[in-house]
Amino acid sequence: MTDYIDAKNLKLSKKDMMTCTMCGFCKSVCPTFEGVGKDTGVARGRVILSYGLLMKDIPADDSVIEALYQCTTCMDCERRCPSKIKVVDIVERARKDLVDAGHILPKHRKIVDNIRTYGNPYGEELSVSEALGEEPKRAKIGYFAGCTSAHRNPKIAQATLSILKKLGEDYTVLNETCCGSVLSRIGLEKDAMHQMQLNIDAIVEQGVEEVLFSCAGCYRMFKEEYPLHVDVPFKVRHISEYLADKDLDLGKLDKKITYHDPCHLGRHAHVYNAPREVLASIPGVEFKEMSHTTEEARCCGGGGGVRSAYPELSEDIAGRRVDQAEFAEILVTCCPFCVTNLRAGSEKNKSDIKICDLVELVEPLL
Ligand code: SF4
Ligand code: SF4
């Protein structure tokens, strides 16, 4: 494949790309570089390749496409970058240009087709509410479960619904469809915006005042990306923020626990304290941070479409993250996607550590 693409979206990042000094500080944090081991697998390599596409210096061949789609969009390089290069914007704009030029990975093509046909990336015929066995209705609080909780990790959705029930909330499941996160990450902005409007219309129809999320990716979409494109006429909170605001009377749990910050919840949506406050409110818990934590937390390897397109790379990254938690009995996180990927990494490591979502830990203690 040797075509030179019309990189319209990358034009918006030209100045940023030219500002990169190629210092290589991003090498010390990039989770994919640790696995790929060459410069095209790190932020500065992706910046150079994107610049090459923009200037038509290089064609969009398979090696360039692979390098740009192996980025998990974790944003750790941006934290480390002395020049404050917006690497994730560059990568996602490059992906939009690649998709516009007809370059989409087969695994991603399938995801897009599934969302267009079924409203979820997994090709499941049941809606989210049908999968959870609840009828959407009008209520004060709406729970946006997300496709991964509903169709791949239902214990997280069921635990969240049980918490809302135990706390006596006027809640409902929503007539939701895919939030559009994966579409935005892999370069299909128009499809993502279509999903945004479908969700906003459905939620408004149900008259909810506040929407709660247990998925970090869905939450980041509604909090950070939806307002750039659509009116969001209701409050949004991650379930960890909701729980931290409650005066919970939780049962005792004598366990050594640590916490993994999902990139979508932490660096992308700036929620760091709420999950830790909830963990601190559990009597008996011995909490210890991992070596890379909060703003410096390492990625689980699951995001940016990497898990679907490059599962081995994704699991290797997850395995390295699980290694950092081996002092604990339970590794808690706040995202069904992170839970799934960390479990895959743990399996690969043959680790005994228990990995669960915050809601799964809290629900039996309420
Ligand atoms: S840290 Fe920033 S400026 Fe340095 S090479 Fe990486 S992206 Fe470029
Ligand atoms: S966003 Fe994450 S995976 Fe992508 S280049 Fe930056 S550090 Fe690497």
Describe this structure in words.
The chain is of the alpha/beta class and 366 residues long. The chain has 3 domains: 9-100, Fumarate Reductase Iron-sulfur Protein, Chain B, domain 2; 108-244, Rossmann fold (3-Layer(aba) Sandwich), CATH 3.40.50.1860; 247-365, Rossmann fold. Helices cover 48% and strands 8% of the residues. The protein has helices at 14-19, 31-36, 43-54, 62-69, 76-80, 87-100, 106-118, 128-132, 147-151, 154-166, 181-186, 189-205, 216-229, 239-245, 273-280, 306-309, 311-323, 336-349, 358-362, and strands spanning 141-144, 171-173, 210-213, 235-238, 256-259, 286-287, 330-333, 354-357. The strands form 2 sheets. The chain has a 4-stranded parallel beta sheet with strand order 2-1-3-4, sandwiched between helices. The protein has a 4-stranded parallel beta sheet with strand order 6-5-7-8, with helices on both faces. Helix 3 (43-54) packs across helix 6 (87-100), helix 14 (239-245) crosses helix 15 and helix 17 packs across helix 18. The longest helix is centred in the middle third of the chain and has 17 residues, at 189-205. It is globular. The site of one iron/sulfur cluster has 16 residues, from helix 2, helix 3, helix 5 and helix 6.
CATH class of the largest domain: Alpha Beta
Residue share in helices? 40-55%
Q: What would you call the quaternary organization? A: single chain
Looking at the structure, the CATH topology of the largest domain is Rossmann fold
Short key terms for the protein model shown above:
single chain; alpha/beta; Fumarate Reductase Iron-sulfur Protein, Chain B, domain 2; Rossmann fold; four-stranded parallel β-sheet; about 10% strand; binds iron/sulfur cluster
